[in-house]
Amino acid sequence: MVLMDIRMPGVNGIECTARLKRVMPRVKTIMMTGMPDADSMQKSLDAGAEGYLTKPVAADQCLAMLRFAFKGPARDCSPLSQRDNEVMSYLEEGLLYKEIADKMGISYSAVHKHQHRIFLKLRVSNRAEAIRSRRAAGGG
Q1: Do 115 and 65 belong together in one domain?
Q2: Residue 51 pairs with which residues in a beta bridge?
Q3: Going by fewer Cβ within 10 Å, which terminus of the chain is more open, N or C?
Q4: Distance of CA 29 to the CA centre of its chain
Q5: Is 52 inside any structural domain?
Q6: Cα separations in angstroms, 128 against 17, 39, 75, 93
Q7: Distance, CA of 95 to CA of 48 (rounded, Å)
Q8: At what angle do helices 97-104 and 82-92 cross, to 10 degrees?
Q9: For the segment 4-61, what is each residue's pLDDT rounded down to a tens digit?
Q10: Residues 57 and 92 in one domain
């Protein structure tokens, strides 16, 4: 868990968050700032932050954001499309991309693109993490 200030010397918090997410995709980051604006909020979320707090921050606000960052949105709101879920089901069965492509009637590269998009949406870096994440969210 990282509480990241947006304004920092050198690299700003938004860029630091983006870099951190590339090397540690599962890290939870909450942005903090004393000068809120919609552009910074959107850039923070685009960089991978789970949330955004405006200083001064009350303790209950901070705790609520921490809970949200670890639990995420409601479990019935899957970030995966129906097609992504179908690919995930086959990945969970241990099928190879070629086998999934044959079963779904799509190309090998289409399966790879779905897998890549799934990893991005779930913020994971491999099949095992994707399966654990999906199961933890009640999707499998």
Answers
A1: no
A2: 30
A3: N
A4: 11
A5: yes
A6: 24, 35, 20, 12
A7: 30
A8: 130
A9: 999 888 889 999 999 999 999 889 999 988 877 778 888 888 898 888 888 888 787 7
A10: no
Q: Is residue 76 part of a domain?
A: no
- Euclidean distance between CA atoms 61 and 98, whole angstroms: 48
Instruction: Name the nearest CA neighbour of 21 among 46, 48, 41.
Output: 48
Write the Ramachandran bin of 118: left for phi over 0, alpha for psi from -120 to 50, otherwise beta.
alpha
- What is d(CA 55, CA 134) in angstroms, rounded to the nearest whole number? 34
- Looking only at the bridges linking them, the beta strands covering 2-5 and 51-54 are unpaired
Long-range contacts of 5-11 (CB under 8 A, 24+ apart): 5/31, 5/32, 5/33, 6/31, 6/32, 6/33, 6/35, 6/40, 6/44, 7/33, 7/34, 7/35
pTM (predicted TM-score): 0.49
Nearest to 25 by CA among 116, 139, 138: 116
Q: What does the block give as tokens for 7?
A: 């304004």
Domain that residue 100 falls in? 82-136
